[in-house]
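Teaching note: in complex prediction, the entire set of molecules is handled at once rather than each chain in isolation. The prompt given to students was simply: 'Predict the structure of this complex.' The entities are:
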Amino acid sequence: MTIAWERSHGSSPIHAHKGVTVSTSRRTTAVAIAGAAAFALIATGCAGSPASDGEDITLTIATFNDFGYTDELLAEYEDANPGIKIVHNKAATSNDARENMFTKLGAGSGLSDIEAIEVDWLAELMQYSDKFVPVTDSDTKDRWVDWKAAAATDADGNLIGYGTDIGPEAVCYRADLFEAAGLPTERDEVAALLEGDWEHYYDVGEDYLAGGGTGAWFDSAGATYQGVINQIENAYEKNDGTVIAAENPEVKEAFYSVLEASSTLSAHLGQWGDDWFAGLANGAYATMLCPGWMLGVISGNAPDTTGWDVANVFPNGGGNWGGSYLTVPKQSAHPEEASALASWLTAPEQQLKAFANAGTFPSQQATYGDSALEDATNEYFNNAPVGSILTERSKAITVAPFKGVKYFPINDALQKALTRVEDGTQSIDQSWEQFLADVAALS
Amino acid sequence: MGTATRIRPDRSARRIAFSQRLGRWDIRVSPYLYISPFFILFAVVGLFPLLYTGWVALHQWHLIGGQGDFVGFDNFVFLFGQRHFWLALRNTFSIFLISTIPQLVFAIIIAAMLDTNLRAKTLWRMGVLLPYVVMPVAVTLIFSNMFADKYGLVNTLLGQVGLGPVGFHSDAFSSHIAIATMVNFRWTGYNALILLAGMQAIPRDYYEAATIDGAGRIRQFFSITIPQLRPTLIFVIIMSTIGGLQIFDEPRLYDQFGQGGADGQWMTLTIYLYNLGWGQLEFGRAAAVAWLLFVVIVIIGALNYFITKRIASSEGAAE
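The expected output is the structure of the full assembly:
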């Protein structure tokens, strides 16, 4: 039900409403038709595209957050390929998309022709790689940076995902709040100021508060933890898949250090919640960790806020957070057309446009060095040269964390553990104990 | 049957006998055939899923991988050992009670008011039903925004009258109140209309007689309306019990993750079922939760039935 609503949200409610108001005068008929229309709406939201031969083919594409696929970009493909219509459905979070994916993969029907997936739960899906249409074209296969394609290639050598973006991380900051707290505001100065490890990042936060900075230093323990954990090579699992989350001192250390810092520095706004989105706009915190795709999330949800800027720096070196793929499930009614569209969307030219729209940093090798990327600036972030900053940040990435089958559920349990401390439900120790119990219950 | 064998050599006689037999079948079987659609439908969409869920609950069952080993009651044993299961049971009952009881009380009061001689009756009656027409998802999205911890409308208003912010997403009881508010918003009017229909079926003579005897409005309400409303009340209470225990949409959309909170503050049994089945992909365990929920609903339903029957009939005796 939930998902049906979300998925139908973008498609056709306007037509349905028109039908009701125009065609009826009597209340009873109106109710009946409204009911029927709502039903049809849900049905179209769930079912794919029952287009017959010779008719227009409707391709559905499901993404989450912001991939940078604007209506204009999709219309470009529709214009170049007469007979193809594209319906784009967006889920709010990657969690929603994952549940939707597994539900419908299990049911054997109902997935969109193209489904976006995130790297954190890629490993779980790779167990069912036979349920996806592999990428066959050899030119297309060589499009991506090696590790991006390797992660989505199964034991039989089938590549099942069209890489979209990677998430090299920088730090976003509010220049206006920095100024009020007596900190430098130019992005080069800020980069120099924050250069160092996580402790240094927290120390500067204390300076910010001591200097009379308003609000908090960062948004939430959860988001900051993501930055820390993505610098650890084997956080929760060994390369053979053995779960080590409970014993790994690095995880415990990350958990405790982030929470100890967050007690004074965090705005305690759970990521992706209503409060968090409000906080993006109202200056509840001065900095946040910014993978490329986060730029679009900020500018999209706080369009009227001025002062956001992005600095070419990241605590403790570099890090990659997230990054996605497009997949074509075998249950699609139009696998060929869907593959063609996925290939087109993830071609270097289109990915550069998506980058311009939402800051989703390309995973395609041909884009690196391209002037469209190198010279890209972002007006919202005070005309920051986001292209060159993120390219620099991607070069600073030294660790490719191993994300196995249990990565997502364990990380999810840990995020909940962080939230329990942030909202004051439990102490740090209690929450850690419960995290250990939750991990034990996962097996 | 004996007659048929005796006259077997004669063809025409046999045909008559056959049609006689058909006729007899008609009398015996047809009634069952006529009522069979209900039973077939029930078997397909009611009984079969119920039993099949039980079958799944006895296995290790992966959402995508499908049937695994037979594990007997291991899934149930696992659940009884889980803190989250008991938490979910607590939350389910808490939200159920906070939502159902005020909801029924208000529904009866609203119905009683609508039952009086009002101006613009239909307008009021339609107005009461209006929240029910709104999609539950839309209701939840609006309410959960209002109940946001830091910048939500409710906490802002509370702040202006000098009360501290309520942790609607951290404190278990507060989150139950917020969710119960959404449920009540949606279902009070619906129940009021059903109760109103029941009230209108009460013969007006009773009230006239009571008025002549000198009984006031309130006395009439408790001594005539409530006892006479018994069958409707039983129906409404059982329906809202089932609905209240199966509540899903509201807690699922209450925060951005839909898993019932970081500490399972508002994780109901249905949410727990969903987390197990679709989050952890353990379908066998999810099916076990479904069966336990079924048992709980049957027990509460039966309990409700007897209590309601007693209360209503003892009130009736007082009349």
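Point out the following to students. The two ends of chain B are 60 Å apart (CA to CA). Residues 2-57 of chain B form one domain.
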